[in-house]
Specification:
Shape: elongated
Strand content: 35-45%
Helix content: 10-25%
Radius of gyration: 20 Å
Structural class: mainly beta
Oligomer: single chain
Number of strands: 9
Distance between the termini: 45 Å
Number of helices: 3
Strand order of the largest sheet: 1-2-5-6-9
Length: 197
């Protein structure tokens, strides 16, 4: 909750349709309580509509989070990172609006030079008919440019814990992943198991 409040204070909802097939995120439903460059107004909005306290100044850089868990069901991996360090969270707000029809707030922020990492990451690989394989190593991820859109439900009492965040990076640079050699086990050899050609 602390991390969510910090990021929200410092700084496309999905398209649903009614019976007439008019998108609920149509401009006719959208209200803009603050201009996107008025950070103080946005801070005040969060303070009045959530359990956040107003904090002034930039996001601490680096910002630390004690734990972060990422589920990757398509590849049967759960990643739990401890003592995560985030850098580059002082982004530029590019959209901020509320939609009373869907009862949601939308905030979009562009970040340059965003990175996060930890020296203490647990990779848990689920395997059919076998115990999970658990490894521990470092992981660092860096992005040149990332655009994140946060959709938060319940305008009267913003439910940050139920927010959805979608991040996009449409630059030709892919994120740089620096993963420790023991992430896939001591005897894992990706060159032999997964040739590129």
């Amino acid at each position: 909750m602390f991390l969510a409040c910090t990021v929200f204070l410092f700084l496309s909802s999905g398209v649903e349709s009614n019976k007439d097939q008019v998108p609920l995120d149509d401009e006719g439903y959208i209200e803009k309580p603050c201009r996107i460059y008025d950070v103080n107004c946005i801070r005040q909005f969060f303070a009045e509509h959530s359990r956040c306290n107003i904090t002034y100044g930039p996001v601490p850089d680096p910002l630390y989070d004690p734990t972060y868990t990422l589920y990757l069901p398509r590849i049967n991996v759960t990643l739990t990172s401890l003592k995560v360090e985030y850098r580059g969270l002082n982004g530029k707000i590019v959209e901020f609006y509320i939609n009373p029809k869907t009862d949601k707030l939308v905030l979009s922020v562009n970040f340059e030079g965003l990175s996060f990492g930890s020296n203490d990451n647990y990779f848990q690989f689920a395997r059919v008919g076998r115990e999970p394989l658990v490894t521990n190593t470092f992981l660092n991820v860096s992005y040149t440019i990332v655009s994140s859109t946060i959709t938060i439900p319940n305008l009267k009492d913003l439910q940050l814990q139920n927010s959805e965040v979608f991040s996009f990076s449409d630059t030709p640079d892919v994120p740089i992943f620096d993963v420790g050699p023991k992430a896939f086990g001591d005897d894992y050899n990706p060159v032999l198991e997964y040739p590129l050609s």
